[in-house]
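# nightly structure sweep
# worker-07 picked up a monomer target from the shared queue
# config: single-sequence mode, recycle default, output format = C-alpha cells
# input follows
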Amino acid sequence: MGDGATDPATEAFLAHRALLFTVAYEMLGSAADAEDVLQETWLRWAAADPGQVRDQRAYLVRITTRQALNRLRSVKRRREAYVGSWLPEPLLTAPDVAEDAELAESVSMALMLVLETLSPAERAVFVLREVFDVGYGEIAAAVGRSPSAVRQIAHRARRHVEARRPRRSASSQEGRAVLESFRRAIETGDPQVLLEVLAPDVVLMSDGGGVRHAALRPVTGAERVARMFAGGIGRLEGALTAEPVTVNGGAALLVRLDGEVDGVVAVRVEDARITGLYYVRNPWKLSHIASETPLTLR
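# output follows
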C-alpha cells in the first residue's frame, strides 16, 4: 500500500480503513474475508485519481460494498455445506467499541447471526443504512439499485431484523460479573454452579468447523448446556483456563488448553443470567484472537 506517509492515496485509505473493515466484516461475518475485500478495495483505489474523487469516504465505502457483495454471494454457497453450526469469526475489540452501544450491538454474535438470514442486497443495505447512516443515494450507487428500490430493501431488511433481533444485552458491568461466575464454573466443571448462571432457556451454539469437536446443532436448556460443558471439560487432557476478554464489543472468555488457544466463548446476558452462548473452536476463525491485538472498528 505504499511506504510514504505523504502519499495522498495511502493517507486517505488508512484514514478510513477501520470503517471499511467494519463494513466488510458486518457484511461477511469473517475477518479473513473482510481483509481480502480491503486488499481488493485498495487495488482499485490505488488505480484511481484521488484528486478527481469528490467524497473519498463515500467512494471507498462504495468500492468496499461492491467487493463485499461479490464475496458474500460466493461464501453463502460455502456456508450451506458447512459442518455444524456456523458462527461469525470472533474479534478482539478495543474498549471504545463496547462503549458505543449501537456499534457493539451491530457486531455482536447475536445480531450478526440475524444478518446471516438476510439476502446479500438486504444485508448490504441494512449495514450501510442502519449501522453507518449512509444516505440512500450513496447506498444505491454502492449496490447498483435505484434510490427508491434501496428504500424498499431497507424497509424489508429492517422489518426482518426487528422481528428476530434479540433483546439488548445487559450492561457491560453486569455482563462482566456474570461472566466471572461462568468462568469459575467452566474451570471447575461444576454443573451446579453452571446452572446458577444459565437462564432456563439458554441456547448454546458451538462452531468447530468439522475440525474440532462441537455440537452440530444448537443446544437449548440450562440442564442440557450444563451437562455438555461439564462432560466436555471432564474429558479434557490438560489444564483449562479461561480469560475474560471483550469480543465483538461484548463479554467473552478466551479459553486455553495447556496455554494454547482452544476457543472463544461469547455470551449474551439478560437479567443477570446467560441467555446465549457462542463457542467458536474452529481454529481457522481464531487467528485474530491469537494475535491479541484489539481492533478499533471506526
